[in-house]
Amino acid sequence: MSRILLLYASVEGQTQLIADRMAHTLREKGHSVEMLPADADPAQLDPAAYDGVIVGASIHYGHHPAYLLKLIPRLGKALTERPNAFFSVSLSAGGPRPKLYAAQRYLDKFQRKSGWRPQLTASFAGALKYSLYGPIKRRVMIVFMTLGGGETDTSRDYEYTDWDAVVRFAGEFAQLLKPAQ
Ligand SMILES: Cc1cc2nc3c(=O)[nH]c(=O)nc-3n(C[C@H](O)[C@H](O)[C@H](O)COP(=O)(O)O)c2cc1C
């Protein structure tokens, strides 16, 4: 059994749901998983106490959260010396009009800016949660969706996450972990 730290940065909750599904998959494989929000007190985060680390974050206005870019260099070798993975969540990665080049650019930019080359990366499609947005965010998203060919009916939410891909990613991460002695 390996101990895994799963850090997530989520604004409207979809990245957290994806992290939940990964944690569930890894626990089914016999691993222990601790999920923590990536904006928790950095003093509480000690990757060295784990056998592997997964970090996930969503995109807003073209960026992963700035605090994550600061956190990664602080984790340093404790992150890179053990199996490590990063996943990005965005609407570019899926939905009715995916923009995969943009999703890849988010991943590339994150790696460049954080200085971290994760062993495993993925982009997952997120969700459009009109029910959670305040009036300004809702208007912004209607404009984005109108320009990008997305859903503009705000009477419901839309989830585009490919859950099979999420489970596969967790399985691939499990393959990076040392077999039990
Ligand atoms: C205000 C706002 C801005 C967003 N900007 C982008 C963007 O620039 N590119 C993109 O692909 N997705 C964008 N998204 C979509 C989010 O990445 C998507 O909703 C994701 O599921 C959010 O994950 P979270 O719930 O974990 O925060 C945006 C969403 C919101 C609400």
Description of the molecule:
39% of the residues are buried. This protein has six helices and seven strands, in the order βαββααβαββαβα. It has two domains: 3-126 and 161-176, 3-Layer(aba) Sandwich (Rossmann fold), CATH 3.40.50.360; 128-160, no CATH class. Helix 1 (14-28) links the parallel strand 1 and strand 2. The protein has helices spanning 14-28, 66-75, 77-80, 100-114, 135-148, 163-176, and strands at residues 3-9, 32-37, 52-58, 84-90, 120-125, 127-128, 158-159. The chain has a five-stranded parallel sheet, sandwiched between helices. It has a two-stranded antiparallel ribbon with strand order 6-7. The radius of gyration is 16 Å and the shape is globular. The chain is an alpha/beta fold.
Task: Provide a quick synopsis of the model.
The chain is α/β, with parallel strands linked by helices.
Name the average pLDDT: 95
CATH hierarchy: architecture of the largest domain: 3-Layer(aba) Sandwich
- Kindly state the number of beta strands: 7
Number of helices: 6
For the report, how would you describe the main beta sheet? Answer: 5 strands, parallel
Cofactors and ligands present?
Answer: flavin mononucleotide
